[in-house]
Design a protein that fits this description.
By secondary structure, this protein is α/β, with parallel strands linked by helices. The protein folds into two domains: 2-53 and 176-242, FAD/NAD(P)-binding domain, CATH 3.50.50.60; 66-172, FAD/NAD(P)-binding domain, CATH 3.50.50.60. It is 23% helix and 29% strand. Helix 3 (89-100) runs parallel beside helix 4 (119-127). The protein binds flavin-adenine dinucleotide. Residues 20-21, 49-51, 54, 68-69, 72, 179, 182, 211-213, 219-222, 224 line the site of flavin-adenine dinucleotide.
Amino acid sequence: MAKCREHVASLNVAIEEVDEVERIDFIGERKLVQTSMGEEYEAGAVIVCTGRQPRPFPVQTDFPNIHYCSVCDGTPYKGKDIIVMGGGNSGFDESLYLLNLGIRSIHIVETFPSCIAAPATQDQARATGKIAVSVSTDITAVDPLPNGRGLVHFHNKETGENYTEEVDGIFCFIGQTPNTALFDGVLELDHGYIKVNADMETNIKGVFAAGDVTAKKYRQITTAMSDGTIAALQAASFLRKYS
Ligand SMILES: Cc1cc2nc3c(=O)[nH]c(=O)nc-3n(C[C@H](O)[C@H](O)[C@H](O)COP(=O)(O)OP(=O)(O)OC[C@H]3O[C@@H](n4cnc5c(N)ncnc54)[C@H](O)[C@@H]3O)c2cc1C
């Protein structure tokens, strides 16, 4: 990222930090953007790349080993025991991915009385013999231990039982929020993510989108950069044609 930034700076691209886009007007030919620092920008084309954020682990704790991406952070847990929070498709799919990395055991914890992941995936996960599932269960606290592990406190809402378990890490898959509140009612969205075509064009001419904020299957740095390249080339071509 430091190298990318150096490269962008070498092309004299201005970077405004700690400034948030608060208002947009994409209707006219000139696109308008207003920021929290009171700046106003006008342009013939805009690329939206506001990303998304994982819903944070809902328990206050000093335990450092809490993660939101198994592709990125799973490898160091080979041979170790982890908790996966969330029994949706992400929780089960990511658990299967994590098991393939050589993780010893996974305990999936779901707050509702049943898991909503596809039944076939749930069966596949249970058949490994390495994945335990607890439903109607909340994590109430996590104590960091001197051995680097975490002591997780559980509460079963059906039975009233409280119990603890030592683990090496926690992966939290309880949903993601795309940063699209600004564009609601302006850009066409799909489950909150911006709909784009293969040229990264949105439903508004001159407005493009790229990266995690778009509706797509795989969200990684490489896919975001690929989207960004396409969006930039298309935006340049759009400006050559229409301005
Ligand atoms: C914990 C974690 C670890 C990850 N590790 C890896 C990894 O190792 N390898 C990998 O390939 N991928 C990894 N990913 C995925 C990767 O980070 C994303 O796919 C990638 O960063 C997407 O780039 P983006 O530019 O679309 O969005 P982002 O990187 O999310 O950037 C969006 C930016 O827009 C800003 N923004 C949002 N709203 C506004 C606004 N209104 N005004 C101004 N700015 C705004 C945000 O603050 C943010 O800086 C990880 C993801 C997570 C959550």
